[in-house]
Amino acid sequence: MTSFDDVAQKMVDALRLAGFKRVHLTGEQATDPECIVIGVPQFRWQSPTSEEPTHATWPVAVIAKADANAVAVLLDMVPKVGAVLDTITEVAVQSADPGVWSGEGTPLPCYEITTEVNL
Q1: Which of 22, 33, 37, 101 has minimal Cβ neighbours within 10 Å of its Cβ?
Q2: CA 6 to CA 41: how far, in whole Å?
Q3: Which CATH class is domain 4-118?
Q4: Residue 56: exposure state from Cβ atoms within 10 A (0-12, 13-18, ≥19)
C-alpha cells in the first residue's frame, strides 16, 4: 500500500525532474504562474469494511498567467505534465479539463488534470 504523502511527493519529484520548476502542494505557497499545484485527493474505499482508503482521485492544476498567451502555454504544458504523471507507477491520468484557478484572488486560466491512484 502506498501512503498519501508518498504519492504526492512522487508527483512533485517527477515533475521537477522533468524540468517544471514551480511545482507546489496545495497550501504550500502562493501561486506563481506558470506553475503546477498538486491538489488534495478525494479518497474511496473498496469495501465498507476497508479501514484505509484504497483509491484516490488526485487533481493536478496547471496554471498560466492571465495574458494573451495563456491558451498557448496551457496547450503546450498540459500534455507534457500528463505524460510525466503517467510515468509514475501508481498514477493514471484520466482527463484534463479547462478552468479558472481562484487561489489568491486574481482568477487565472488553468487546466485541472484528473489522476487516479491505487493506494
Answers
A1: 22
A2: 13
A3: alpha beta
A4: buried
Q: What is the dihedral of CA 71, 77, 79, 82, to 10 degrees?
A: -130
Residue 63 CB-density burial (10 A; 0-12 exposed, 13-18 middle, 19+ buried): buried
Three-class secondary structure of residue 95 per DSSP: strand
Describe the crossing of helices 4-17 and 70-85 by its angle, rounded to 10 degrees. Answer: 120
Cell of 119: 493506494
- Residue spans of the chain under pLDDT 70: 1-2, 29-30
Model pTM greater than 0.85? Answer: yes
The answer to whether 67 touches 78, Cβ cutoff 8 Å, is: no
- Dihedrals φ, ψ of 88, to 5°? -85, 125
- Backbone angle region of 106, left / alpha / beta, with phi > 0 → left and psi within -120 to 50 → alpha: beta
Which three-class secondary structure state does DSSP give residue 9?
Answer: helix
DSSP 23-86: EEETTSS---SSEEEE-PPEEE-SSTT-SS--EEEEEEEEE--SSTTHHHHHHHHHHHHHHHHT
